[in-house]
Amino acid sequence: RHRARTLALQALYGMELKAPRDVEAELAKFLDHFHPDEGLRPFFLALVRGTLANRGEIDAALERCSQNWKL
Question: At residue 20, does pLDDT exceed 90?
């Protein structure tokens, strides 16, 4: 699970920089490149998709808790 979390963070960072139009295609390319174990893929995908789906709420929570930082 540690590996899945690490990969999810890398994928999210890459998508933040690229802002892809097709997130699922970008995820497929990422998985194709990094080849995580099949057992990690569902957790990895749940982390990435869940983060993207709740990005607004996550950003708002981080902004409320941070000082001198804007998201």
Answer: no
CB contact at 8 A, 58 and 51? yes
Q: Give the per-residue SS3 of the chain.
A: CHHHHHHHHHHHHHHHHHCCCCHHHHHHHHHHHHCCCCCCHHHHHHHHHHHHHCHHHHHHHHHHHCCCCCC
- State the sign of the Cα–Cα–Cα–Cα dihedral 22, 25, 8, 13: negative
Q: How far is CA 11 from the centre of its chain?
A: 5
Is residue 27 within 8 Å of 35, Cβ to Cβ? Answer: no
Q: Give per-residue pLDDT as tens, 46-66.
A: 999 999 999 999 989 988 888
Tell me the pTM. 0.84
